[in-house]
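Methods, example record. To illustrate the input and output format used throughout this study, we show the complete record for Serine hydrolase. The sequence lines were provided to the predictor; the line carrying structure tokens was produced by it.
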Amino acid sequence: MKIKLLLLLVTLSFLACKKKIDEPTPASSEQMYYPPNNAIDWETKSVASLGWKQTAIDDLKKFLVEKNSKSFMILVNGRIVLEEYFNGHSQSTSWQWNSAGKTLVATTTGLAQQEGLLNINTAANQYLGTGWTSEPLTKENLISVRHLLTMTSGLDESSDLVIKSKLTYVADAGTRWAYANVFQKLMDVVSSASKQTFESYFDNKLKNKIGMDGFWDDGIIFKIYNSNTRSMARFGLFALNNGKWNKEQIISESFFSESIKTSQNINPSYGYLWWLNGKSSYMIPGSQNVFQGNLIPSAPSDMYAAMGASDQRIYVIPSKNMVIVRMGNASDPANPSFAVSGFDESLWQKINAVIN
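The corresponding predicted structure is encoded as:
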């Protein structure tokens, strides 16, 4: 009798342990992982361990191929769950971030402020020199560095060129939100304040610290960052952790927190060059219309994103400890977007079929 009882207890104990092993591990209970700098190896996590739907992954991949994607990654707690390459792209291939790289500029500007080199509430012409616009000086004086970070300079956005003759007055700084390339003047602000090239400052203070590869390319209109997909994911992981990498708080958590909150009262869905989901309304590039509801209805409400032309994306979702990266050509070549597009909603429907 005692032997039978002992065998029963051992069996029950084994089944309980097996159940615990087979059960998905909640993302919130797992320690955050940071890949070593310049390392090829990167820890992975299986789809099964998260309880995701393996059967929906093929449909997601098919959609990504149909929409001209080059690469796609999902990280959970820093570990790679999905890493896919399409159309001849590979792990080592560089691709342009387009305006998703604005978030790199915003972060670098914050680093310069952290070091006491500049103050984002100071007039931009304190760093750029007076007369950097074609506005009357009284109007130019109103434009702070912060206005460049929030797309509220009040300058005419109709031209892609950021040259003095095109930087003309439309409204007082802070009174109008308009998506424009004038943000790139932040690179000149940082360069002036740090007394070195923007690229050098960026490399030393951010890129090298989190192990990114990549380079700034002089594009037709403005400098564009290029990197491999894993480097884009590294920056997403840095953002997920509020500017922290491993044990180092590279940029102050307070500045990063400001970056991913509504930065002005005109477009609630915009921070410091980051796009924000879950707000009551949003505006889009090239329009002064205000649209009601979330930027991407199917995406988690706490998501914030780096978004660039031709659907370059870094989605950061704190509630899921998740980072998602997409690189590639425009999902709809006939109607390429500057940033926000209908592609995001369609993609998130496919992602939700996998993760929910």
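Annotations derived from this record:
The chain has one domain: 48-86+94-355.
Confidence is low (pLDDT under 50) at residues 4-23.
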